[in-house]
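B., you asked whether I could sanity-check this one before it goes into the benchmark set. Here's the sequence:
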Amino acid sequence: EQARAARDQAAWQVGLLAHVDRLEELAAATADWLAAVGQWLAAAEVAVERADRLAAQDELVRTTAARADASAADAERAGRELADAGERVAALRSLIGADHEQVVVDLRAARDRRTSLDERTRALVDERIAAAERHAVAVKELEVATAEHARLDAERSQAAAGIRGLADLGVLQIVLGRDLDDPASWSMTAALEHAREAARQGPRIPAAEDGATLVEAAQNGLARRQQELTRDLVAGIRLFGRTDYGVVIHDVQYAGRTFRLPALVAELREDVAERDRRLATDEQALLERFLAGELHEHLRARIRDASQLVRRMNDRLAGCPTGSGQRVRLRWEVDENAPAGTGAAVDLLLRGAGLLTDDQRAELQAFLHDRLRQARDGDAAASLHERIGTAFDYRRWHAFRIDVRDRTSPSWKRLTRQSHATGSGGEKAVMLHLPLFAAMAAHYGASPDAPRLIVLDEVFAGIDRGTRGQLMGLLVDLDLDALLTSHEEWGFYAELDGLATYHLVRDPDVPGVLAEWFVWDGTTRWQL
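And here's what the prediction gave me:
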């Protein structure tokens, strides 16, 4: 229990108190949800990366093409320059007679330069073709990533629609324990937040001992609860299930209409409220009849009879002081643990119904209303008749107390464990025997013709002989039929008008027990 309390305290601090028993299932559902979101985010990241790579390849292709165009322009320009050079060489030769070998060397150099430019041009073309191939691959990868992104987005939208659907059905409100705004207005982010909150607060479903999964255990538990609810429902209410958004939803047919369970609860509460209003009207009429009729007088007479019985018992107890002169009396009063207002209600019940003012009648009616409410809300195992009888049992409103008084003290004091412990052993015994005898006499008073038997073992142990005689006389006054056992008490007291005593003797060497029979007639002992 301490571990559970600590767990609940920790759960409360992190907002998981309402869902501490189903964290694994909701954690698994949340993990699946977040895994789908993670896949979507990963695909988006791949798509962004590939788009960046494609842009880089496009830039490389454009750069290579520009370089190739520049090289071609350079080659063309070099060709023109070579032609111009040839023309200048010819002109120079004709004008100044340049050396033929030098001209050949210059031409060879020009040719080598052109060859180098051609090779560079071909290399740039190859680079451009490779860049175009990489661009095509990147475009294909982008198409795949876009399709995966669309699929995950569709799954995410479908899951969000499921969350909104559960909210429309009232399931999400039950899990969260509060009302929600219109699900149709939820964004994707809002739906995700509600799903995460439900995962945190939802009940935890423990796995079954036979190795069943959480889902199987939950389904089995739901089936059992459905059977129990179906068995407990009154005739005319039928329960049936269906599956929406992956969740089993139970609807109820009642009064010719189909309700969802939360709506049925609201309908039943309204029905109960209406019945309570009608019942309150009936109760008011009942209490009016109670206060004006013989029931009031009957209860009043019973309380007065009980008070008079206590006074009679106290009159008899007054003649039985202890050896030190202590006297005991019974006090019957409203119990301190009785419902609020019991004392005032008892005072009003002891008055005649016709003598009550309007305010007094209203006060008494309020007390009786509380007793009827207590009867309705009491133990369902008992019938309403039994619960009403218990709620109006005046004996449950009262409690007995024992008071003691010394011969030197003018006031009575309540007998407590502490005050009882201060007396001698005999006084302690007397203080306990006197209330016991009074209680037995009062109990037998309900059946005057029944045997009034009281059985005491080791009777009056530790009490002096004079006080024993008084207690024997009290048994006679209370008309109790006593059966007593003692290893030393014979019971021959002048206060007793008749007694039969059996003295039992056992010899270990002789089988059986000898019973000697003596009779006391109040003055003389006879052995029969």
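One thing to flag: The chain has a mean pLDDT of 82. Otherwise nothing jumped out at me.
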